[in-house]
Amino acid sequence: MMNGNAIVSYAPLEVRGVTKLFGDFRAVDDVSFSLPAGSIYGFLGPNGAGKTTTIRMILEIIKPTSGSITVLGESSALKVRQRIGYLPEEKGLYKKMKCWAIIAYFATLKGLSKKAARQRAYELLERYGLKDFANSPTEALSKGMGQKVQVLASIAHDPEFVILDEPFSGLDPVNQQVMEDIIRDMAKRGRTVLFSTHVMQHAERLCDRILLLAKGRKIFDGTIGEAKQTIPRRVRIETEDDIAALRELSDVVAVRQLETTNSVLSPTTAAHWELELRDHADPQAILQTCFARGIRLRSFNQSEPTLHEVFMRLVGSEAKEAAFR
Question: At what angle do helices 143-155 and 114-127 cross, to 10 degrees?
Fold first, then answer.
């Protein structure tokens, strides 16, 4: 990781055994994780999982009941606040200020000169499609555009470590794409980004690693690929023929027939089956057996599970609280 011209070896964030109690309520329960420098790290979980509470402890807005947190090599985020960018969950802007002015204002709070802050504000507005609104008051902006301005204000000082709490909340698809572009651009320049979300699609497209929380506890910490490996490998087929030969294969752990919803519109005698395979089994072996044993296929699907499916499996009933999109 770079800090000016010096190379430093610490992780941007280290959380060790952190617990937060509010009376008898355990909002965060013995959570530990660290962020690799230059990574995009997804902080996932249903509403009420403890994501925002953990972020507020990282930033020392509130203190943990127990455990320790190190940010950019320091025991307190307050010591390195000029090197951190933060978008809170509760978003809001000064309504009468012009877009460029509010971005420049937050940049000056982080140490930029007024001239540099103004230049930076216009650069960011142009880069992310808001140049024509630079002189508009923020009250004239749509919700999505206003949120983009607030994100730009949080990164105008070019921080090393950026924390975005639910940055996609309330954005339309176009502005969601712009938000993803902002996050990718920061990572390309070696910045470390942590963002919380309960929308799995964004995490699946963006993240190098994810942390999954439920009821304040860590359920999973690892790469997207590792997360998907928590679900057994599956093959789905559609056929009119008997599949007894597939049931006999040593790599097939379980077979279940899937319900279909199109039988009324498209009557067919074909059945849909899902075959659960052993770890490291080759799905192509299923296809080869079908050809060899004369099992005629209407469809064959060996697609990997989505992060949404992983989330539902790992979190269980808690996942029902999440508002997936």
Answer: 130
